[in-house]
Amino acid sequence: MSIATALPVRKSTIDDLLRIPEKAELIRGRIVRAMATGHLPNRIAGRIFRSLADYADIPGRGFAYTDMMGFAVPELTSGRESFSPDASFYSGPAPAKPMKFVSAPPDFAVEVRSEGDYGLAAEREMAAKREDYFEAGTRVVWDVDPESGTIRKYSDADPSRFVTFVSGESADAEPAAPGWKVAVDWILA
Predict the structure, then answer these.
(1) Contact 112, 37 (CB under 8 A)
(2) Is 60 domain-assigned?
């Protein structure tokens, strides 16, 4: 008679995550891969990055990042150990090893909804991820909704409340990116 022995499952690390060629995050010791995005969500994230990159070009202001940037954080209550927002801004120092992730949360994180990011389950997942961002120390999180044409801004000062930016307005990320504003119509064009 043969007895099957369960081998211990090895917990993945940030170094393991660095070797993953596609977008992924580290949650509860597991590498969670992200789905590729569609045309409109990708263009929106790209426009936000372009505007943030211009803002960040002023020396000493910080860094703007695209959706493949990894932020390593100490393990959070949820088990999360990393973020890879669709666009982001970070005002801290560059990593000592520039080929590695930033070992801190972004000041400002942007999550652009893709086709599968609608419905009750998706809303719960997005709310949980915002909680993780704020627990890690992120100041502002945007929830960009291409279908409704809105941007919801959540802040660490009161994470349960949000400000909605719509067509004809300029959206900001105060206090995470002081003085930065961008036209909602341009982002969602």
Answers:
(1) yes
(2) yes
Read off the amino acid at residue 36.
A
* Structure confidence at residue 113 as a pLDDT band (50, 70, 90): very high
pTM of the model: 0.89
Contact between residue 182 and residue 171 where contact means Cβ atoms under 8 Å apart = yes
What pLDDT sits at residue 72? 96
Q: How many domains does the chain have?
A: 1
**Mean pLDDT for the stretch of residues 60-89:** 95
DSSP string, 137-188: T--EEEEEETTTTEEEEEETTSTT-EEEE-TTSEEE-TTTSTT-EEEHHHHH
Largest CA distance in the chain: 73
| Amino acid identity, position 49 | F
| CATH code for the domain in which residue 150 is found | 3.90.1570.10
Q: How many residues does the chain have?
A: 189
Residue 24 lies in a domain: no
- Rounded to an integer, what distance in angstroms lies between the CA atom of residue 141 and that of residue 88? 9
Query: Across-strand partners of 171?
Result: 182
How buried is 1 (Cβ within 10 angstroms: 0-12 exposed, 13-18 middle, 19+ buried)? Answer: exposed
| Domain encompassing residue 164 | 37-188
**87 to 27, 46, 56, 78, 84: CA distances (angstroms):** 20, 8, 13, 22, 8
